[in-house]
Amino acid sequence: MMRKQDECTYCSGKGYFQLLLGGSETCSCCEGSGTVENEA
Q1: Does position 27 have pLDDT exceeding 70, yes or no?
Q2: Pfam families in the record, alphabetically (predicted)?
Q3: Which of 20, 26, 30, 35 is 20 to 30 A from 3, comparing alpha carbons?
Q4: 34: region left, alpha or beta (phi > 0 left; psi from -120 to 50 alpha)
């Protein structure tokens, strides 16, 4: 089984979201890593 890391589509690989009111929030999908592990 191969594991492949892909760029998180929710935060575009940044690991966080830029908030409209200023500041940033960690992406809950990738937990701030910017990548998600997929089983290929």
Answers
A1: yes
A2: DUF5351 (PF17302)
A3: 26
A4: left
Q: Name the residue with tokens 């690991």.
A: 15
pLDDT over threshold 90, residue 23: yes
pLDDT of 1 > 70? The answer is: no
* Torsion region of 7: left, alpha or beta (phi above 0 gives left; psi -120 to 50 gives alpha): beta
Q: What pairs with residue 6 in β-bridges? A: 36
Are the CB atoms for 5 and 36 separated by under 8 Å?
A: yes
- Closest Cα to residue 34, out of 19, 9, 3? 9
